[in-house]
Write a structure and sequence with these properties.
Blueprint lengths: L12 E2 L7 E4 L11 E2 L10 E5 L2 E2 L51 E7 L3 H12 L4 E5 L6 H6 L1 H19 L8 H8 L4 H25 L2 E5 L1 E6 L2 E5 L5 E11 L3 E3 L14 E2 L12 E5 L3 H12 L3 E5 L11 H13 L3 E3 L7 E3 L5 E3 L8 E3 L1 E4 L3 E3 L6 H4 L22 E3 L10 H16 L16 E3 L5 E5 L2 H8 L3 E9 L13 E9 L4 E8 L3 H13 L4 H5 L10 H4 L3
Parallel strand pairs: 6-7, 6-11, 7-8, 11-22, 13-20, 14-15, 14-20, 15-16
Antiparallel strand pairs: 1-2, 2-4, 3-5, 4-5, 9-10, 10-11, 12-21, 17-18, 18-19, 23-24, 24-27, 25-26, 26-27
Keywords: Cytoplasm, Disulfide bond, FAD, Flavoprotein, NAD, NADP, Nucleotide-binding, Oxidoreductase, Redox-active center
EC number: 1.8.1.7
Main location: cytoplasm
């Protein structure tokens, strides 16, 4: 008998055939079962029905080609003895990831089907399933977690921490640890391949956690590339080329974005560079590296390379970086990046890239006679929505001239049952934003009347840049505020050296600068912009205050914590 939403029961039930075999539900099958396998007890974890004779388990057809890690399987085996004398035992090992749903699985129609297994899609799917909805999710990359987990926030933060360790080593002698000669030697002995192996293992573990969470929450996981057949039907193409379709009442597109690259027509030789995702595939550290771009990704990757000892060149179109942030942040950051040895090529235009016989790259610049020679080139010039091949045109989903899906404040497209969340809708490209939008959408669809008005506000979303030093920003920049409110704006600024550099030589002391933007007579804080050590951690609490409508008086009435950098925010007035 099928429980609600068409899911098989998770316990063995006696078969009526004469062979004495019994149906068993496999919850997380990750064993490659091609031979009859003797087992004394069974616990089964995720949605596959197989036939098992007493003490012998045979792979069902859907499992026969499954690749599985034997980390968690518990099987429960029904005995052929009468029910009155039947006994069960269980054997448990640690949890394993779910096997993707077979194309042959009889899933019926889903209440919700999510295209994309990134942070937003996972948040949306799991929240919907928690309300009892029948949910499926498809991911093409074979790795759950999306950009953030695999080639974004998480591995990038690992690299940022690594660069911070190198910086601490170089400054250790000022605090009485060893000598500059020894400490610089240690910092310069960094082994990129060793760290990459550990970082990749960490990411793989996170992928497994996402896998197991889907299994735990009863979300069917499909692997393959999805495209629309009609507004309620999605075709899934597996890696082996085979195709099948699934149907759903509601479909959510959460396919994220991907790096933008110049074409060979735009920049001959552009193909010799890698995109920002390729940074995480580097097996060795380039001695000389070029990063092209002025956004947060370019700034962060250039900072990591520079901090770990690569001779780093950053090519920017204008004279500032992070041009969508408050100008103060670039004004403080760029001189410090240059002071720490980074080569910043301002007002640069790259007409071509050449590859030498030795494999190095020559970066040509307009107006410059001599090219810059490097071992590796990273393009970090932006990102765009990953909608190619989705078949949005088949169902009439509107896309703007940048290739982003057009949605309203409820994440709804122009097609009534199709929604879009995350980077694919081109607004606030941040992991927590995608997660929040996905969860609120599922709350509204399946959580009942109390969530009928649940939607994400895109105002006062905090963001950070893992530069050296770090940056935190929430609310309106000063130019944005002045454009919107004119003379009703008051701005408070401070710049100082934080105490972490108290024992360092002047040339090694990182700058710190804070700015508050206030509105009206009550001076409500509508913008906060920070650069300096720890700004990424400091920002979160103040973002709550700003979201709650804190004013200058609120800040002034708060007793400072001393000695900290953060105290400057409440004593800045």
């Amino acid at each position: 008998m099928q429980p609600p939403h068409g899911r098989p029961e998770a316990s063995g039930t006696k078969s009526a055939d004469s062979s004495g075999t019994h149906e068993v539900c496999v919850i997380s099958p990750t064993l490659h079962l091609t031979q009859p396998t003797k087992l004394s007890s069974i616990t089964l974890a995720r949605a596959r029905v197989v036939r098992a004779s007493p003490l012998r388990l045979f792979a069902a057809p859907a499992l026969a080609s499954a690749s599985v890690s034997a980390t968690s399987i518990a099987l429960r085996l029904a005995s052929t003895t009468p029910a009155s004398t039947r006994s069960f035992s269980t054997t448990r090992v640690s949890a394993m990831p779910p096997l993707p749903v077979s194309k042959a699985a009889e899933v019926g129609e889903y209440d919700l089907f999510v295209i994309g297994g990134g942070s937003g899609g996972l948040g949306c799917a799991r929240r919907a399933a928690s309300y009892g909805a029948k949910v499926g999710l498809v991911e093409a990359s074979h790795r759950l977690g999306g950009t953030c987990v695999n080639v974004g926030c998480v591995p990038k933060k690992v690299m940022w921490y690594t660069s911070e360790v190198a910086d601490a080593l170089r400054n250790a002698a000022s605090y009485g640890f060893g000598s500059d000669e020894v400490n610089y030697g240690i910092a310069n002995s960094f082994e990129w391949p060793k760290l990459k192996a550990k970082r990749d293992a960490y990411i793989h573990r996170l992928n497994g956690i996402y896998d197991r969470n889907l299994a735990k929450d009863n979300v069917d996981y499909h692997e393959g590339f999805a495209s629309f057949i009609d507004a309620n039907t999605v075709e899934i193409k597996e890696a082996n080329g085979e195709k099948y379709t699934v149907k759903a009442k509601t479909i959510v597109v959460s396919v994220g974005g991907r790096p933008t690259l110049p074409t060979e027509e735009q920049v001959p030789g552009a193909k010799y560079g890698m995109d920002s995702d390729g940074f995480f595939d580097l097996e060795t550290q380039p001695k000389r590296v070029a990063v092209v771009g002025a956004g947060y990704i370019a700034v962060e990757l250039a900072g990591v390379f520079n901090g770990l000892g690569s001779d780093t060149h950053l090519f920017i179109r204008y004279d500032a970086v992070l041009r969508t942030f408050d100008p103060m942040l670039s004004e403080v950051l760029v001189p410090w990046m240059e002071k720490t040895g980074m080569h910043i090529h301002k007002h640069s235009a790259i007409p071509k890239i050449e590859k030498t016989e030795s494999g190095t790259l020559l970066i040509h610049q307009k107006g410059q006679d001599k090219p810059v020679e490097v071992d590796a080139l990273v393009w970090a010039i932006g990102r765009h929505s990953n909608i190619d091949g989705l078949g949005l045109d088949k169902v009439g989903v509107k896309v703007d001239n940048k290739g982003d899906i057009v949605v309203d404040e409820w994440q709804a497209t122009n097609v009534p049952n199709i929604f879009a969340i995350g980077d694919v809708q081109g607004k606030a490209l941040l992991t927590p934003v995608a997660i929040a939008a996905g969860r609120r959408l599922s709350n509204r669809l399946y959580g009942g009347p109390k969530f009928k008005d649940d939607k994400l506000s895109y105002e006062d979303i905090p963001s950070v840049v893992f530069s050296h030093p770090t940056i935190g920003s929430v609310g309106l920049s000063e130019p944005e505020a002045r454009e919107k409110y004119g003379d009703a704006i008051k701005v408070y600024k401070t710049q100082f050296r934080d105490m972490s550099g108290a024992m360092l030589d002047e040339d090694h002391k990182q700058p710190t600068a804070y700015k508050l933007v206030c509105l009206g007579e009550e001076e409500r804080v509508i913008g906060l912009h920070l650069i300096g050590k720890g700004s990424d951690e400091v920002l979160q609490g103040f973002a709550v205050a700003i979201k709650a409508g804190a004013t200058r008086k609120t800040f002034q009435d708060t007793v400072a914590i001393h000695p900290t950098s953060a105290e400057e925010i409440v004593t800045i007035f």
